[in-house]
Structure formats: C-alpha cells, structure tokens
Amino acid sequence: MCFHPLHTDLKKPERFTYPFFYTPHPLCRLAATEVQRYIASEKRWQEEIARGKMFGVLVVENEQGQLGYLAAYSGLLSERNDWPYFVPPVYDLLKPDGYFQVHEAEITQLNKQILELEKNPVRLQLLQSLDALKKEQERELDVFRRQKQKAKRIRDEHRQSGVLSAEEEANLIRESQFMKAELRRMKKRMEVQRAEIEQKLEVYNNRISELKRARKQLSDALQHWLFSQFRMLNAKGEVRDLCCIFTETVHGEPPAGAGECCAPKLLQYAYLHHLHPVCMAEFWWGASPKGEVRHHLHYYPACRSKCLPILTHMLQGLDVEPNPLEENVSQLPEIIYEDAYLWVVNKPAGMLSVPGKSNRLSVSSWLQQQSDVDVQPFVVHRLDMDTSGLLIVAKSASDYKTLQSQFALRQVKKQYVALLDGIPKTKEGMIRLPLRLDPMNRPYQVVDEAYGKDAVTEYEVISVLDGKARVVLRPQTGRTHQLRVHCAHADGLNCPIVGDRLYGTPSERLYLHAERIMFRHPVTKEYLSFEAPTPF
After folding, report:
1. Which of 303, 278, 323 is nearest to 31 (CA)?
2. 380 and 426 together in one domain
3. Same structural domain for residues 83 and 175?
4. 215 near 107, Cβ under 8 Å?
5. What is the pLDDT of residues 74-113, one digit of tens each?
6. CA-to-CA distance for 142 and 149, rounded, in angstroms?
7. Which one is catalytic: 9, 372, 384, 386?
8. Whether 277 and 358 share a structural domain
9. Of all residues in the chain, what percent are helix, strand and coil, respectively (each to 5)?
10. Rounded distance, CA 182 to CA 112, Å?
11. Is 109 domain-assigned?
12. Which residue, 110, 329, 355, 373, has fewest beta-carbon neighbours within 10 Å?
C-alpha cells in the first residue's frame, strides 16, 4: 500500500488544489518534507536525481477518515517505474513479455537492420565513390565553363573590333553553338557515369526506406495502443483513455510521455483505492536542466501540454479551487499621461495588458470603457500579467506603428526594479541568454543557444536586506519573460524574482515593476520620460 499516514492537527483546505497555479497547502508541505527525507535516505538514487527530477505529493483521506499522503515521481527512476513507497504507473509499459515490450523489441530489431544497411561496407564504398565522382565532374565542368566564358569574351572582342564578314560571323556563331552543345553532352555523359553507381546504391536505399516505413507504421500503432491503455479515472468514476482525451486538443493526439507525470499517477491511484484527494503539490529535486529554470525543492505547477487535458478530465467531480488567473484584480490602472495621440498607464500587478481567452479585465478593455469617445486602444508593448508598471497605449493604428518602430529599433529606454530571492554574485553587469518558447509547456521560456532569440539585460544591485537583493534591470531587448528568466536561470543571476510563480516561488505578487520609460512622441517628436514609483 502506498498510503502513508499523516499525523497532524493542520486543517484541511476547503477545496482541492488548482494544479496549474497554486501555493502549496501546509499539509502538502508537511507531506513533501517526509518524501524529501525519504529521498535523501535512498543513496542508490542520489547520483541520478541530483541531475534533476520532479516529485509529487497528494494528500488524501481514506474511507475511515484517516489523513495520509501518496508520493510519485515523473517518468522513470533508475529505469524503473515500480519503486516501493511511490505509487505505480497508470500503465506498466516495462512489464516483461508484455504487449509493449514485445512490439518495442520488433522496432528495435528494425532499427538494427536499418543501421546495418546504412553502415554496410559496400554501400559506404559506393557513397564514397559517388561523392568523389561528383566532385571530379564538377571540377571538369568548372574548367569547361571557364573556357566557354573566355571564348565568349574573345568573340565579343572580335565583334567590337570592327565590321566582320558574313563568314567570320558565321564561324563565331558555330563556335558558340558547338560549346553550348558540348556542355550538354558533357552533362549527359556524366549522368550516365553516375547512374551506374546510383543504381547499385538504390538497392540499399530502397530497402532502408522500406524498413523505415515499416518502423513508422509499427511505432505509430504501438504508440496509439499504449495511449489507449492509459485509462484515466475521475472523481465521478468515469473512464477515458488518453487517445479519447486528446482528440479535443489542437494536435488531436497525446504527446510522448503523457500520463507519466506525477499528478495523473497520484490521482489515478487515489481513485482506484477509494481515497479522497485533499490537496496536491509537485516539487523539483536536484540541478536545473540546462535550458530551463528549476530550483531544488521549489514547488511547480503541473505542465500544461501533457497534463492540462488529462487533469481537466480527472478533476471532474472534485470541488477545485478557481483559477486565480481568471479572477479580476481589485486595483485598477492609473493614467499617468494622456493627450490626443496616446496614453501612458501604470498597470497594476495581476492585470492583463490586452484581452486574453477569459473575461478578465485588461488595460486595453479598461481604457476603452473609460474613453468618452469611440477610441480603439493599441497597446504598443506588453507587460506580463504579474508585472506592474508603465505601459504605452496608442489611440490610432498609425501612432501605434510609429511607436512600435521605436521599440523595434531599440530606441525606447526602459528601467525595471525587482526584488530577488537571493543575492547575485556580482553587483552589476550584462546578461546575454537567448530565449525561445517551450511549446510543450506554454508560457515557459527556455534558454537555447542554438535556436533562441537574442536577449540582453543590464543589471545593477542597489540594496541588500535579509538575503534579498533589490536590483535595477534595463532590458536591451524585449523578449517574453526576459527579465524573469535572466534573473532565475543558473547562467544568469541565479536568483529568481520574489513571487515568480513560473521560475521561482509564488507569493502575494511578482516583485517586478516597470518604473521608468523614455521614448519620442509619435507626432511632436518630443522626447518624453515617465516614472511610476515602485510599490514594494
């Protein structure tokens, strides 16, 4: 049994955790502490989990009213999914002689055959011979083309030197026609030379293509079969497999690893054993992956690409906390400046810059409500919902384009103030970490040296108190979540911004404020500077 009793007087929450935005309940923290103590005692895993692993806890109540918790890890641990103490997988794909293992062995055998053909010495020799022949032919063609160009220059010089006789002109034309025809004959001869080798190669390549098609068909069928075995329960007792659940998503099919994260495993075990879910949390153990931001023992929301569709089904029948992101903030924006062409607004933390999928109030919609005339607000740049501070909004499409061009040319100067959960090693400097969206876990951004967009931030520590640093941040580029990732990432300041629910630890707010902005007026061209005092 994976049920671990909890002996505590802590009060249970009134509603179950909303898994995509939460502050861990004290019961979850207590359970997580016990799990962490157990993990630390298991020396056989230390080297592996030190590289980074997600663990989860689900506080539950059994049929006798006893409080306890379940523990899980994401994916595999030391190539196993059945370690005692933790809940088992929803479906055991590692079961020896099981359907999955048998058919995966067939795919492995196909991989072996493909590799043997690709590395076949005769095929490799043919490839080498074909490559050498192509290079030699290209050199021969290059020599002839230069000769052809030289002959053309000489003909042109003859024509320019004076009047040619009809016979002389005919000779020049015949020479030109001959060289063009000779080039075509050379190419045809070379094609015949290559064809002999290519025909021999085709025997190998056709077989490789045939095996790859068979592998893809087998792999797709096995993947579909596997996802059909993940039959997920919900609190109502209803069952839907992953294939059915993901038909309603954009891609229409489950991504790799779906159903193997902590949250689905924990809820599935609870439902199967008639345990009532009380609250849930997931924490990271070990080092952060190179591109992502993960901090040891910090809590993180469930991933959206794999878990959002699954948990939307599995949480039906439970009284779940509302999504805080869909609740309107009580504080409204403040208009710092307004003229006939634009607004400069001080946006409160928790408000969207532009309308989103929910009915949540945004700066754009609020401005439209405040305007006495029919004016369409054009938000020139964005602030994260969790970030407060100055925002420029144009009153016409033309002024919007003019202002946006200043951002594109990096002529707009912005300054932010942030409170960091830690103290950077250096007092000032420049952070250069290229960023891109993690499409499998929106809206997270990851550092990617190969495919990320250039992102540069200047920083300066202005004060330190109680282990927290107050810093000024001056972004030189405007990437999504740039300041948040640059502060939190191990190759940046390695100090997440206080209250950062995505890259650090949630708090009552994100301690990041856009306090100053400087730009040229789109019409008068006057240089404007605005400041909004930092509210923390």
Report:
1. 278
2. yes
3. no
4. yes
5. 999 998 999 999 999 999 887 777 788 888 899 999 999 9
6. 11
7. 384
8. no
9. 40, 20, 40
10. 47
11. no
12. 373
